[in-house]
Amino acid sequence: MRYVEQEQAALVEAAYQRAGCIAKVATSALPTAVGEFAIHVYQELETGLEHVALVKGDITHGQDVLTRVHSECMTGDIFGSQRCDCGEQLHLAQQRIQTEGTGVLIYLRGHEGRGIGLSNKIRAYALQDHGLDTVEANLALGLPVDQRSFAIAAEMLKCLKVCSIRLMSNNPDKNSSLQRHGVSVNAIVPLRIPANANNRKYLETKASKLGHLFNWPVFRV
Ligand SMILES: [Zn+2]
Questions:
Q1: For residue 193, which of 87, 94, 146, 206 sits 20 to 30 Å off, Cα-Cα?
Q2: CA of 73 to the centre of ligand 1 (A)
Q3: What are the binding positions for Zn(2+) in this chain (predicted)?
């Protein structure tokens, strides 16, 4: 992220923290193909966006809670798009939480295409078909490379009274953003997804230009 974008994101995130920006609006049991979960819906007061915490077991006052903070990706999560690895990361994380018996998967709306929105993401895909990479395509559209905020996820974890987490992620920016917002990230757990012919360049760009890591061991931070 460029400096100006970082500064803007920090301002927005600070405003969210001051405001107390979410309210829990619904909760229920949710049986899934993977296992039994509880689903909690939180509404962002400013925008009306609804975000989800899918919870397994009792995580209240939990230490080292296995956690995924997932950015919405309709094409990957729902349609199994091979342009990215979102769907596979989502399903692997949910399965790991089920296997562990406790954990939380936070699903953040409004994060399509690293925050540029669905239609702009699809426009960026069209540019990528003409040779641009994912970073160049966003910039060619006059859009930021990454304008996601993880402040909402941090607030949701506070509402859930989670004390500390093990974060399933390949993205160091997500880890540092959560920590800036008061989340104790005690370990990083990578989500290794094998590349396919369609997403190899995308994954390479995420590694070379966005700092994503794919071969970490689990380690304490
Ligand atoms: Zn995706």
A1: 146
A2: 5
A3: 73, 84, 86
